[in-house]
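Good morning N.,

You mentioned wanting to compare the apo and holo forms, so I went ahead and generated the holo version with flavin-adenine dinucleotide. This is what I fed in:
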Amino acid sequence: MTTAEEVSIFDQLSPSNTAVVIGGGVAGMQASLDLANQGMKVVLVERTPSIGGVMAMLDKTFPTLDCSACILTPRLSEVARHPNIELLTYSEVTGLTGEAGNFTVKILRKARKVSEEKCSGCDDCVPSCPIEVPNEFDQGLGFRKAIYIAFPQNTPLIYTIDEENCIKCEMCVKSCEREAIDLSAESEEIEVPAGAIVVATGYQLFDVSKYPRLGYTQYKNVINGLEYERLINASGPTGGKLMRLSDGRIPKSIAFVQCIGARDVSKDVPNCSRICCMYGIKNAVMAKELLPDYVERSTVYYADIRAFGKGFEEFYSMAKTRFRIEFIRGRVGEVVENPDNGNIVVRVENTETGKFLEEEQEMLVLCPGVLPPECFASIAANLGLETDTDGYVSVKDATTNPVDTTVPGVYVCGCAESPKDIPDSVAAGSAAAMRASICIARGGVIDE
Ligand SMILES: Cc1cc2nc3c(=O)[nH]c(=O)nc-3n(C[C@H](O)[C@H](O)[C@H](O)COP(=O)(O)OP(=O)(O)OC[C@H]3O[C@@H](n4cnc5c(N)ncnc54)[C@H](O)[C@@H]3O)c2cc1C
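and this is what came out, ligand included:
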């Protein structure tokens, strides 16, 4: 973000010094910082009002149980304050012309109706807004106003008006002393030059309601993994209090179901999502860690445990030994609600013992796999990208060129290429930045 006093870096952009990074999750942030720290100019384009991606929604991170916000927040500020990064949030890439070393990128800057130069993020506008809608950042478990920031560390700290829900009562306009709000502001399209592009558009969760037998949306005490992350997060909708949605009670038993929308050809997702085993185990541990005196039983129903990363197997062992997490091998067949108490009855065959089990749990968390984001098709078309059978960006050669797309000068990182955990997304962000900077430095001539 540039302030009124600072000179915009827009005037300094040229194909010989500029990269456009699309997607401001942890992978795109890393790529931007690495490029900017080499002296390149970076235009970072993020679709939502804030950078941070899914990592900003997480509570702790496996396998160290570090606080996600504590790691991410300094990075958010670093990106926002970097003199070589122009941060365009609430924006989307709508077209690309030219070739490696000499692209022109069309970017739609959606009207947030709040001036980025004048808004100080003071919050004075919020109490006056009469409209409340479910907060996407809290997975719809909490509420926000029609003028809002997504979360306290929203970067940049600038409010956005959600046009779909705003009733144009102008109460916010009257309450803003800095006169930052303009309800008549329109979206604008701009063009920037770039020598290379980095795609870091991430992922979305598989929609677990596609398995009606698992009771999501039917039973209040069946939630998904990201909803659980928001429930246990101190800045989440319950202030970090793990509670059942049916009655607000702390669950004494809680279970996690793995591989929902992963490794299932019947749902068109044959691939493994790579992250769900570990985040399921992490969250089973977190239930006991947060509420050792309340949560008596924490169970994981799994098909296979894939603890392949550094420190992952040790974390899995610790979950079994120190935290006494119960692991039951078997795909859950069906769940029903006990109407007397809202508990969830899980029917599953333990494939290790061959026994059919019917277990009552006070809360059930479905751990979905991931998919390319819905909006990805249009960005792929705009950039001319090819996609693989799972819908992720195809790379030139998965063994020797894992971040080069089939379009010269366009690179990919993070979950836009395939499901990845945070460390792998960050490593891919650095790799894509390196490839992009070589492309820019050599005027688009690469691999010669
Ligand atoms: C429940 C859950 C728990 C997890 N826990 C852990 C954990 O403990 N440890 C760990 O290592 N990993 C964990 N993960 C995985 C982690 O979320 C990912 O590794 C990480 O978010 C990947 O970062 P990314 O930048 O590739 O994608 P994302 O975080 O998805 O970021 C992509 C960004 O691109 C933006 N974008 C999308 N499309 C466009 C577009 N067209 N134009 C502009 N911007 C766009 C998005 O708005 C978003 O900001 C967890 C995942 C889940 C679901």
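Residues 22-28, 45-48, 53-55, 58, 61-62, 92, 200-203, 205, 225-226, 229, 275, 279, 282, 373, 375, 379, 414-415, 420-423, 425 surround flavin-adenine dinucleotide (CB under 6 Å).

Happy to go through it together on a call whenever suits you.

Best,
F.
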